[in-house]
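Appendix C reproduces, verbatim, an entry submitted by the partner laboratory led by Prof. M.T., so that reviewers can inspect both the input and the predicted structure.
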Amino acid sequence: MTTSKRNQAILLLLATLIAAVMALPLVWMLSTGFKNDFEALSGRMDFLPRKPTLDNFRQGLGGELMNTPVLRWIANSLSVGAIGTAIVLLIDSMAAFALARLTDLPLRRLLLPMFIASLMIPGVLTFLPMYMEFNALGLINTYPALILPATAGAFGVFLLYQFFLSFPKEIEEAGRIDGVNKWQLYARILMPSAVPILVTLGIFTFMGIYNDFVWPLYATTSPEMRTITAGIAMMATGSYTQSYGKLMAMTTVAALPVVLIFILGQKSFVRAITSSGVK
């Protein structure tokens, strides 16, 4: 075996071990979801349930668990994530376009450093002021309270800014010769070219909103308004503290939408990383 092949084999083995370590909690979660509470609490390290059961999934999705409307929580998470992601893509792309292509924008050179500097501010510092602001507006325990905090982000502006800045000027000049205005340049030329970047940003944004835990936990007060992450947390500290099978079953259901979205958008995700690296 040559040195290069030996190195490849070592790297492949290392990647396999890392993947196995990363997948182990997911496999354990899925396995526990099919166990009854007695088997889940037995402490045995059995990845395959001895008596598989669908009762945990049936009771959770069927609404048989007291005061835990799991399907409503999932619907809340999906709707809030979808609406928030759409608004983020619109606002961030327009801001990035203005910073990258509109040379006559006032304070253009000052705004970008301010956006980048905002990335260094920990979210925990803005949590209390944001809560007080939404409480003063009477928006706590409403959908706007779950959607509005995530409707724009400096990361998305910076990501799209880099792409728009590297867009060939020759295409823009050709469009202007044909009578394309600024809005048409944004909507008809730049946005279709930025689809892989937009899909990547959309995946990150949706996962961030869908998986958010702290803000939905404090911004909602009624069971019907909770998202799936806050709902499962309330289950884990409430009547189902020892019901590991039910908790893992609902956690598996909660993870499915994010996993499916990532799988469906994987090609665009890889294409965006590759194109950004080449540029």
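The chain has a mean pLDDT of 83. Additional entries are available on request from the coordinating office.
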